[in-house]
Amino acid sequence: MSPAHTTPVATVTSGNAKITCASCKACCCRLEVILMGDDAVPAGYSETDRWGGEVMKRLDDGWCIALDRRTLLCSIYASRPGVCRDYPAGEGDCLVERAKASL
Ligand code: SF4
Ligand code: SF4
Predict the structure, then answer these.
(1) Torsion region of 32: left, alpha or beta (phi above 0 gives left; psi -120 to 50 gives alpha)
(2) Does ligand 2 come within 6 angstroms of the Cβ of 84?
(3) C-alpha closest to that of 72 among 5, 3, 4
(4) Which ligand is nearest to the CA of 73?
(5) Which residues pair with 67 in a beta bridge?
(6) Structural contact between residues 26 and 62, judged by C-beta atoms closer than 8 angstroms
(7) 80 lines ligand 2 (CB under 6 A)
(8) Pocket of ligand 1 (CB under 6 A)
(9) Into how many domains does the chain fold?
(10) pLDDT digits over 84-93, tens only?
(11) Is residue 86 part of a domain?
């Protein structure tokens, strides 16, 4: 499981609700992002998890290192990992993560 997010900000309709990253708190950027072979993130932005896989590093606040804490936008949007590109706003995990944040 893993994140997506944000610039340009996605807005989708889920049931009767409009889901927009603009009013979200980058909830999905707290999830583990597993890096694939063709992902190229800046040096120092990844780490090895306890199973030996390469993942995006998260800081003590729980968010991905690449998240701009001021804007809550991805600072490496153009080169964000594939799992972030493919993350479906307004669907399963996104709704679960938003619910955890009472959104
Ligand atoms: S959890 Fe959903 S709405 Fe929030 S930033 Fe991620 S994709 Fe956007
Ligand atoms: S790389 Fe960007 S989109 Fe992916 S989790 Fe980190 S901040 Fe969010």
Answers:
(1) beta
(2) yes
(3) 5
(4) 2
(5) 74
(6) no
(7) yes
(8) 4-6, 10, 19, 21, 24, 26-28, 87, 89, 94, 97-98
(9) 1
(10) 999 888 888 8
(11) yes
